[in-house]
Amino acid sequence: MTATRGFGIDIGGSGIKGALVDLEKGALIGDRLRIDTPRPATPEAIAEVVAQVVAHFGWDGPVGITLPSVIKKGVALTAANIDPSWIGTDADALFAKRLGLRVEDVVMLNDADAAGLAEIRYGDPAAGRGVTTLLTFGTGIGSALFQDGKLVPNTEFGHVEVDGHDAEKRAAASVKDNEGLSYPHWAKRVNRYLTVLENLIWPDLFIVGGGVSKKADKWVPLLDIRTPVTVASLQNNAGIVGVAAAAAEGLHH
Fold first, then answer.
1. pLDDT band at residue 252, thresholds of 50, 70 and 90?
2. pLDDT surpassing 60 at residue 75
3. With the C-alpha atoms ordered 12, 14, 20, 25, is the resulting torsion angle positive or negative?
4. Percent of the chain residues topping a pLDDT of 90
5. Which pLDDT score, from 0 to 100, does residue 235 have?
6. Which among 63, 82, 116, 198 is least buried, having the fewest CB atoms inside 10 angstroms?
7. Are the beta carbons of 204 and 130 closer than 8 angstroms?
8. What is the dihedral of CA 53, 58, 64, 67, to 10 degrees?
9. At what angle do helices 91-99 and 43-57 cross, to 10 degrees?
10. Nearest-5° Cα angle at 152, 15 to 21
11. Helices marked H in 166-237 — which ranges?
12. Is residue 1's pLDDT more than 60?
């Protein structure tokens, strides 16, 4: 029987968010719960918060969890905006033990990959054709790459070098806030970044997401690039929805 409900948790640099998900609609069921990311954001501290979120909803099925990390076979290989002690951590095993689940019932995905899966499945049908790149603008810049709807996992396009700088150090949404940039000023930086990226991978479509996508009308129309740009339809809930669907299907990377 195909599951109609799932559960996803999105771990970010500033907050850990979880919710029940309607897998037929690609929408949250009720409100999500958000708890500030602990400092330091060590594996043990984050596992404790994840357990609180799961307990809050009384969920006992498979759990999907995103991390701002490269994930291979459940192991975190990088740590962006979380504690460096994550590197080399078997996240599958850590969360399964803390939640009292079998390892196969915990599915770990890179946060942008999870958001991309949600957009491919529930968003603009054009996203499932050709080369599509989802970019999440938040604390950093996450990326997900798809060829005809199939995920190429663990791309790190937020770290492409642009004019001698790591792209996310110039164009992440956090940089806009920290430097007090206007939307037009920040949009110029995003435009420059997208120009460099489109000349590297020649995508058919960019999908822009992350918290700043809620204000897409203030900056997306200012972009002037070759590639069509669409706004993530699930906005900031895409990670939760995508990883819940992956967990329900046992999709491991």
1. low
2. yes
3. negative
4. 90
5. 79
6. 198
7. yes
8. 10
9. 50
10. 45
11. 167-171, 173-178, 183-201
12. no
